[in-house]
Amino acid sequence: MIDKWNNAQVYELGYWKYIMENGIVCSNVTSDKIYEFQRKNMLETLLYSERPIEFWKDKIIIEFGSGPLGVCEFIDDKEKIAIEPLINEYRKIYNHLQESDVIYLDKCAEGPLNIPDGYADLVVSINMLDHVIDPLKVLNEINRICKTNGYFLFHVNVYLSESDINKKSGMHLDLHPHSFTKIKIFELLESYNLSVIKFYCCPEPNEQNEHHFICFGVKKKC
Hints:
Blueprint: H1 2-22, H2 34-46, E1 60-64, E2 79-83, H3 87-90, E3 103-105, E4 120-126, H4 135-145, E5 146-158, H5 162-166, H6 170-175, H7 182-191, E6 194-201, E7 211-219
Parallel strand pairs: 1-2, 1-4, 2-3, 4-5
Antiparallel strand pairs: 5-7, 6-7
């Protein structure tokens, strides 16, 4: 699993290098517009919480697997922490990171993370759980770090059935070794005291037969 994770890191770094050099061709976004494009996307994602952006201003937000342009880069909060093992490489590519006010931890999401229990008002995880080393350890860290009655914003691509998962192959399988059905995601979140308030699962699959899934919820008392 470590080898697959290392391969995924190499691919992820290559992806963000390509984006910086060439833009997002499929969305007709040139490289000089990437920052504003991602800012719009990340703020729209945060608004899925049905809380205005200003709601988070006096809050502590921790983001797992942020990449170089995660939610934390675009909001004004009391404290922003991002767990990103590739951050030192991203700083060589994305100039805005040189002056970022985000506290980046160049660690794996599984930890150990030097963050106290119950520290975050909001924990964010966007499109990362399917290519970590150990999803259960990541969910345990999210549960540990999030305050009781704090919030979580969670995204992952899911499958609608186990038979769809069994069709997964090739490079996509190598780079995303973990697969989840929508039902499994609900079960996992609930088992780590993460109670979903609202969710959306796109009915149309992507090229890999995955479905975009996002949810917002609250950390229950253990």
